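I can't quite decide. Please look over this sequence plus structure tokens:

:::
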Amino acid sequence: MLVSSIMANRSTLDDYLDALYLERGLSEKTLSAYRTDLVGAERFAHQLTRSLPELNEADLNQYIGSLFSSGISTTSIQRKLSALHGYYKYLVRIRQRADDPMARITRPSKGRPLPKTLSEGEVNALLDAPDTETLIGLRDRTLLEVLYATGLRVSELVELKRQNLGLEQGVIRVMGKGQKERLVPLGESAREWLARYLLEARPELPDPRGVAVFPGRTGEPMTRQTFWHRIKHWAHVAGIDRAISPHTLRHAFATHLVNHGADLRVVQLLLGHTDLSTTQIYTHVARERLKQLHSVHHPRASGTLTSQ
């Protein structure tokens, strides 16, 4: 009985894959992936002494639970469920089933990846890396200080103009996405480094009277690529053994503000985010950091019992 059920199941599976090929023109590689995913579900059905076309919603939810328990990625689970959604819709279409058991089952969200950031200790090491007794070292230290103090986008940083600096007021005026202007506080440290840079280093750089705060070789604003290479270099000097970018410091700026209790709407304004939901990712980063600290430092975080 089970053998004939398997044969019938394989027949509908092959028919479904043929339909995908004819109707959607899928490649052999994609069809092979669909077959693998459906055969995996078929094996689960056999454990329940059923065939794949016979599974109901509860069975399929049990199967999905087993996928999550196996530790495979959400992306892989999404792909497997996509194959099942299409398969059962096909069975309804050819009238082999009256209902679609996948109709109320949604694909799991991939979730938004948490941004890569730096600890406060790593930021301090990065800021201290440039030799500020040299012209380029002083320039790069100032770039890093301003970026961490303000959380600017890299394009906003390298395109800063002198007239947008308010050192006496301790703010800079930034023209962000969509030509939206915002005022961002500098903080005392970044303000002091900027003042020193403008006095000691900027007059020695190309186009000393030009409007660009951080000029490249031609006197025009430094390119984003140049700054990316500089921050990569100083990360290596600081002993940070993972890839970072200018955006990493922007993430660090926001994460450390949230860690220290900053209101999320304030962080939103400082970052120039239009939608608060974009900024909310940093609450997740902060929670992850708290969990890591708890697991490392709490005496019972590992769950190990010790005798008194």
In short: The first helix runs from residue 2 to 24. The radius of gyration is 28 Å. The domain at 2-93 is CATH 1.10.150.130 (DNA polymerase; domain 1).
